[in-house]
């Protein structure tokens, strides 16, 4: 019977059928961060359990690490304690790959995995972080788990899982100028809602997806979780192989042909059945920007803030009204008139080198708006930072008035010092505009790096197409 | 984890859709390395008028009178009624830890986000989905009663409100079994030790480039 890519990944990791709807699944790679792992290690110690496979572990501190000069140390005692706990927990695991703060390779775990070639097609990858879906761009079955599951994987290298359903989103045509993978992701969420893919794994297909670089595919899969999906997937093709070639952890030359042979089988078979399908035309996607407190509260940048009065469903209407109050907006206000206090370019959605190149192209030789309190650019990893500096992008950013920081999650969730203050409005390339996400009382508008760049120059939410 | 056969208790209503885990437990409290101490910070930014900091004494903080779960009649509630896509967003298990500490043993919603639902089961919180019309009806009853007791019978798959007929609910078998069984899931999985080892060995032979990584 023809199978989907997800079916293949599932079957190839199935150890045992536990129930009619559940199986024991083998986990190849376990990414670990400082925030969601301490309780799992404590649980292991309490039961005197041993880690099943040290070599499956890739660990780094990213969520609450400072992005300023590491010489200054970590001033927040609580953050320091979590970073120290990770150091301690990894100390005895000599088989694990560990990129401690503030080492050269440290950064957002979802940026590090792919760039080092740790993320490979056909693997199961988990992490105590929902944006693990990012790695699905490589045909890896990658998803976020809670801390009890982190402990379960540490102890058994498996998870007892219920199989998800298959959802195909095929995108024909090509994205217009000024429209990026981030807009496509928001377009999907606008279309199906933040619960639209609950219980499903989304496979992105079609010529518009095939035309995306690996970095853009990562942006797309990263946001699949924002559509409620367990994860996102893109089948292996030449773009995948090209990216993986010569990465530090990629298969050696001798084993490369064999690996490629297997990897290229990781595509959905002709005629495979999906529980749900959606066909989109990339040509219809426009630059999008969120106005509210959920990624589905999103409009075209040329649009106005929607009027909840026009919504019939009372619950949805109340949700819209609450979001407007929180965001300090009135129905009918033009998105492009919204004045910004801060700009954040970073996060596992949009902090890779291609994102930074797009930003640099747009801001080169310009200055950010006078009234901005802060415009941060936070590279996703040490390697991204070094590459950007090699290309001179850092100078462009600094000359334009941006702050060029060290890698980490930073203002994506504001667990370190980088955050919004109550009432501050921010153009952000991250993935969540939830209440308080970027700082208590902060107001986030999600958008592509290109839109964030021109919005920084203007100090207002701005349509990037005017700058092309 | 204790087994959760049935829950009897006061019901409470949180009448919102898309309640995310950042709202259930804001990130400033995730800096703890413990599994406990989160209950007092559950819904912190909605529940209190001042800004919360990990380690502070919440008993003296000013409660937000407009937050529905702050109503006196909900103070000892153990069953939460809410709407669609509850627990969306971050995978943080700190959210169900906080809800559990706040006393919730069952959550009845129109739908749940995947990771959150799984994290609930891991912590003995029973996640139940009902249709929108049933949730509407029950929410109305809870809101308009001074005290509204509900019995959730997991073994029978029944919700018995103090007024009206029992409602049956569906739950996938493996989730139900896990909740009924309770106990140490890792211990249970380690029962498959040999099978896991054999699988690993086969995988290593079939995909040789994975070895030594
Ligand atoms: S960058 Fe943001 S979304 Fe990504 S892992 Fe860090 S906190 Fe999570």
Automatic annotation (TrEMBL), chain A:
**Listed InterPro entries:** 3-IsopropMal_deHydase_lsu (IPR004430), Acnase/IPM_dHydase_lsu_aba_1/3 (IPR015931), Acoase/IPM_deHydtase_lsu_aba (IPR001030), Aconitase_4Fe-4S_BS (IPR018136), Aconitase_4Fe-4S_dom (IPR036008), IPM_dehydratase_rel_enz (IPR050067), IPMI_cat (IPR033941)
- Recite the UniProt keywords alphabetically: 4Fe-4S, Amino-acid biosynthesis, Branched-chain amino acid biosynthesis, Iron, Iron-sulfur, Leucine biosynthesis, Lyase, Metal-binding
Binding residues annotated for [4Fe-4S] cluster, in chain numbering? 348, 409, 412
Q: Name one Pfam family in it.
A: Aconitase
Catalytic activity, reaction form: (2R,3S)-3-isopropylmalate = (2S)-2-isopropylmalate
Enzyme class, UniProt record, top EC level: lyase
Could you tell me the EC number(s) of this protein? 4.2.1.33
Start and end of every Aconitase/3-isopropylmalate dehydratase large subunit alpha/beta/alpha domain?
A: 7-459
The reply on keyword Lyase is yes
Q: Per its UniProt record, what SUPFAM superfamilies does this chain match? A: Aconitase iron-sulfur domain
Record-level Gene Ontology MF annotations = 3-isopropylmalate dehydratase activity
Q: Does the keyword Iron apply?
A: yes
Q: Annotated pathway, please? A: Amino-acid biosynthesis; L-leucine biosynthesis; L-leucine from 3-methyl-2-oxobutanoate: step 2/4
This protein's cofactor list reads: [4Fe-4S] cluster
What does the UniProt cofactor note say? Binds 1 [4Fe-4S] cluster per subunit.
Any idea what job this protein has? Catalyzes the isomerization between 2-isopropylmalate and 3-isopropylmalate, via the formation of 2-isopropylmaleate.
How does the record describe its quaternary structure? Heterodimer of LeuC and LeuD.
The family classification in the record reads: Belongs to the aconitase/IPM isomerase family. LeuC type 1 subfamily.
> Per its UniProt record, what NCBIfam families does this chain match?
leuC, PRK05478.1, PRK12466.1
The identity of this protein, by name, is 3-isopropylmalate dehydratase large subunit
What is the native source organism of this protein?
A: Marinobacter iranensis
Phylogenetic lineage: Bacteria, Pseudomonadati, Pseudomonadota, Gammaproteobacteria, Pseudomonadales
UniProtKB/TrEMBL annotation, chain B:
The main enzyme category here is lyase
Q: Which pathway does the protein contribute to? A: Amino-acid biosynthesis; L-leucine biosynthesis; L-leucine from 3-methyl-2-oxobutanoate: step 2/4
The EC number(s) attached to this protein equal 4.2.1.33
Keywords attached to this entry? Amino-acid biosynthesis, Branched-chain amino acid biosynthesis, Leucine biosynthesis, Lyase
| Single GO MF descriptor | 3-isopropylmalate dehydratase activity
Report the PANTHER family cross-referenced here. Answer: 3-ISOPROPYLMALATE DEHYDRATASE SMALL SUBUNIT, 3-ISOPROPYLMALATE DEHYDRATASE SMALL SUBUNIT 2-RELATED-RELATED
What family does this chain come from, according to its entry? Belongs to the LeuD family. LeuD type 1 subfamily.
What role is this protein assigned?
A: Catalyzes the isomerization between 2-isopropylmalate and 3-isopropylmalate, via the formation of 2-isopropylmaleate.
Quaternary structure note:
Heterodimer of LeuC and LeuD.
Question: Which protein, by its recorded name, is this?
Answer: 3-isopropylmalate dehydratase small subunit
- State the species of origin: Marinobacter iranensis
Q: What is the lineage of its organism?
A: Bacteria, Pseudomonadati, Pseudomonadota, Gammaproteobacteria, Pseudomonadales
